[in-house]
Amino acid sequence: MADEIKMVDIFLMGKRYTVPETLTILDAMEYAGYQLTRGCGCRAGFCGACATVFRMADDYELQVGLACQTKVEDGMYLAQIPFFPGRKARFNLDDIEPSVAHFAQLYPEVYRCLGCSSCNKVCPQDIDVMQYIAYCQRGDFTRAADISFDCLMCGLCVSRCPANIVHYNAGLTARRLYSKYIAKPDPFLVERAKAIKDGEMDAEIDELVTADNEKLQKLYNEREIEK
Amino acid sequence: MTYTPQLRELMKKVEETRPSRVGVNFPRMSQEERQDVLQKFHPDYIEDGFRELKVGVDKGARLPNEMADVFESWSRLRDVELDLKAEPAYDVDVLIIGGGGAGASAALDAHAAGANVLIATKLRFGDANTMMAQGGIQAADKENDSPAIHYLDVMGGGRLENVPELARALVMDAPLVIKWLEDMGTMFDKKEDGRMITIHGGGTSRKRMHAARDYTGAEIMRTLRDEVYNKEIPVVEFSAAVEILLDDQGRAAGAVLYNIETEEYQVARAKTVIIATGGSGRLHYRGFPTSNHYGATADGLVMGYRAGAKSIYADSIQYHPTGGAYPPQLLGLLVTEKTRGLGATPLNINGEQFVYHLETRDVASSAIIRECEERGLGVPLPTGITAVWLDSPILELIHGEGTIERQLPAMLRQFQRFGVDIRKEPMLIYPTLHYQNGGLLINGNGLSTVENLYVAGEAAGGIHGTNRLMGNSLLDIIVFGRRAGRDAAAKSKEMPVPEKLTLEHVKAYHQQLEETNAAGDRVGPVLLPHYTHR
């Protein structure tokens, strides 16, 4: 089917290249001859390295996407954002609480949110970014953690924010606060960890570690599988 | 409407058989059947994909051709003038090469032990397979489970070829690792009362797969990275190590770093070195697509091997049974094993199941290859390859509507981006190159066969034998990252600052390459794959 592939014109930083229309932006850049360093990571939509801003010819509207997760289109003008100098607050998780007061010290700029929704418009994960910033403002870290969870930290929200909020770092801090202090710790995990440290699990495993392969294979084949 | 009319027609067969498959388990293979399908169809057993290594400490070992190519290559420093007596650009106790989950865990524990640590990484900090691991992390932290039961699964899954000491360390540390991550504020899926939600994975006998939705690795990686920044551990990005430096007694004493952007070489001196560079999927063994990160090019194996570290099971590669096959933009991308874990079934062109949905990865992959190649029952795709169905919509029947959106949000989004709704339409899959089962041989502290040279994460070998189970890789990077970090820190305290840094081992390796004429014009490590899509 190689000979049936339609070609389209795209503009990498203003320069025109003709590429197959089936390619993602990332693949198209490589097709055009680029060896990517910045702007390319997992190539599967998980790492946020390949945030890309584009505009279609004759349209004024800027659009965004992950280069590895967006197909090229004819007349696409694009540039990648290689890095964004967003601030991360340093903290010792053991010394802070999930409170408005502590959060406001770490990320005071969240209170400067203008409610413009620019962050929501650019999020390639379709996260309601502005809403989780609002939850952070209120100290509702449970909801902030839940909504912000799928964030890839690509930085597009930060690039558009007129209040200079670093949403992705605020969201990450909210999730760590929620997970450490609001979600309950697993009680049995504490017990199991203690039992291991106290050597209570040693005898059972050492019997297997010293067993010969014939015995191990038999035990493995006959092991009970939880329904 | 991404699926063509032909595919939509074939999809009807999947829909027809779906109700009859709910709640019915396809029979597991016997040990003989498993062995048979592996030997006939698993790429590890296809001999023309391998050759004997001509140089180095494992001379004569069997390696995949593509890995042998990078092992048998000239150093990038062959024509580079480097003053090893000058003041080094970096001077630390513990040098960690690689910024994935293993490197970050090693850094945190080495730092906690009081060492002065540097992380050098080829791309961004966090650019690693860790970030992409979706399905989960194993640990025996339920009443009906124990590290011993976990051990049996690890060993059986690994065909009993695992190094017992390493498998023991893996399962015994597992609950401690989950606790460590929980304390660090990692957002695991939990019940109201705090208990971890755990499910099965391929080859598990207990439900011990912990997850953070289907972003498990990403959640772990971003938490570890955040903590490394909190501790103000220095990280130098876009600086790939290209050779290990030794001292005049043959002990690891640093590395030569290559700044990918300025193209300069710099010396990092260290009392101990940890290789945490990950895997090698981007070498594309046998032309397979891969689920791996862009940077997975076996750098650490190449450097470590040149420095004299022995490898183990480097010829054992894991093909993940559920790689994306269609639409073409998703070729090779991982469809998380959690999809099978929840009950999605692989089906042939007739909508019939042909393998138990929770077989181990090696067996499931081989069964899919057999279905397509030998039995001719694969689904032909417009791109010229064949694939099988993975019935995702059945999950909504088994667990109720909304299951996919709740449990597999990353998968849902990824397929939606290219026009497939996996709640209503089954996926098309084919095995993808996923993991390097072997690597550089380590002991329980992560120490390689070279003094002061540690290895952690996918670059290390022996833990998983010749087949790793799902959820044991996220586990191993942290278990052995931490163990290596602690031991490397302790060892660094006994060591003076290395005096005579040397690359004599590279010269000696070159000598062997010249004698055997093995390298051609290849230079390694390759650092990044080169794609043209033509």
Report on the architecture of this protein:
The complex is a heterodimer of chains A (227) and B (534). Chain A is of the alpha+beta class and 227 residues long. Chain A has 10 helices and 5 strands. Chain A folds into 3 domains: 2-80, Ubiquitin-like (UB roll), CATH 3.10.20; 93-182, Alpha-helical ferredoxin (Fumarate Reductase Iron-sulfur Protein, Chain B, domain 2); 196-221, no CATH class. Chain A starts with 6 loop residues before the first strand and ends in a 6-residue tail after the last helix. Chain B has 534 residues and is α/β, with parallel strands linked by helices. Chain B has 2 domains: 5-41 and 318-433, Succinate dehydrogenase/fumarate reductase flavoprotein, catalytic domain (Flavocytochrome C3, Chain A, domain 1), CATH 3.90.700.10; 74-316 and 437-508, FAD/NAD(P)-binding domain. In chain B, helix 4 (101-112) packs parallel to helix 8 (216-230). The longest helix of chain B is centred in the C-terminal third of the chain and has 22 residues, at 473-494. Chain B is globular. Chain B starts with a helix and ends in a 10-residue tail after the last strand.
The count of domains of chain A is: 3
Sheet bearing the most strands of chain B, described? 7 strands, mixed
Q: How are strands sequenced across the largest beta sheet of chain A? A: 2-1-5-3-4
The largest contact between protein chains, plus residue counts on each side, is: A-B, 74 and 88 residues
Count of alpha and pi helical runs of chain B: 16
Using DSSP, what is the number of strands of chain A? 5
Largest beta-sheet details of chain A: 5 strands, mixed
Query: Which class of secondary structure composition applies to the elements of chain A?
Result: alpha+beta
* Overall spatial form of chain B: globular
